[in-house]
Amino acid sequence: MSHSIYTPRQQYVLLIVCLLVLAGLVLFGLGSYITGLFGAGILYVVLRPWWAALVHRRHWNRQLASATLLTFALVVIILPFTALTLMLVNRLQFYAVHTDTTQLMAVLHAFERRIGVSFTADQNVQTLIRQGLGWLSQRLPSLASGLLHFVIVIGLMLFTLYFMFVQEEGFLHGLRRYLPFRDATLRELGEALRNNVHANVLGQALISLVQAILTGLLLWVFKVPDALFWGMVSFFMAFIPVLGTPLVWGPAALVKLAQGHTGQGVGILLLGLVVVMNIDNLLRIVLARRIGDIHPLVTLVGVILGVEIFGILGLVIGPLLLSYFMVLMRVFERENRHRPAPADTAAQP
């Protein structure tokens, strides 16, 4: 009878190492497709109250209720958001190729003459514009360059979401069994997930939509070219706390002022500050009481982190990851605080 050369402790450590290595290979193999799994988790949190109402209260068949909600998510959430994103990508790519930077430089120089301060260098501004447009187009998905990738991500998202609903009890039991956290920590993580998804999906999407409509109307009233497109841009910019839509209507007002349209420029600035910004603050106060409140700094840093890693879906995933990190840090602090101090074996004088 052969005996293992490893002690039980070594076997335990090697088992953990093997699990971590295999998990790393799985994540590496999934690559960018892992956004489909994150998307499924987000949609599960958003749609679960409706699923519970259909299955537990109205006693619908699980498969029928799941298929109904998946169809709703595809038609009402996924396809419109994807179409909006692709329209934005196509227009950004068009601007990246066809933008005449000499016209923009003329506007900037006119603005410099009006304020009496020189702050631009032609080459630097042109390089900055092209780099900015290129960075945005790389972070946003494009059907032209990745139709198969898009189909696989959406299919993986819907497939995962379907089984999360149909086999909900087994899914939740597996999470509780295999996640290395206590019940209190799991409840805290679940609460953080609900708050973040509600604040950054339901709440922020509603705020962004209202601000996009107001910004588009504001620019259209004051005759800014391509107001519909810039309203669409403001929808995504509104996910960024503090900065948000001023990144859209602010430059438009400066361009109007530089072109000599003082009334239009001042009107955009005043209405942007008084109406668009205040609507944002009012909606955030109201929604924070109803669907969860996330600190603006967490959202801002999370958006930067998420967009860099996950693209457009990082607007939601980034703040979620940062919130989870903060929750686990609180758990670590709490566990260390309650851990008994080691006995003092030093000799007493």
UniProtKB/TrEMBL annotation:
Alphabetized Pfam families for the sequence: AI-2E_transport
Record key words, sorted: Membrane, Transmembrane, Transmembrane helix
Keyword Acyltransferase: no
Domain of life according to the entry: Bacteria
Lipid bilayer topology: Multi-pass membrane protein
InterPro entries assigned: AI-2E-like
Transmembrane segments: 36-55, 67-89, 143-166, 201-222, 228-254, 266-287, 299-329
Compartments where located: Membrane
Major location (coarse): membrane
Similarity field: Belongs to the autoinducer-2 exporter (AI-2E) (TC 2.A.86) family.
Protein name: AI-2E family transporter
Upper taxonomic lineage: Bacteria, Pseudomonadati, Bacteroidota, Cytophagia, Cytophagales
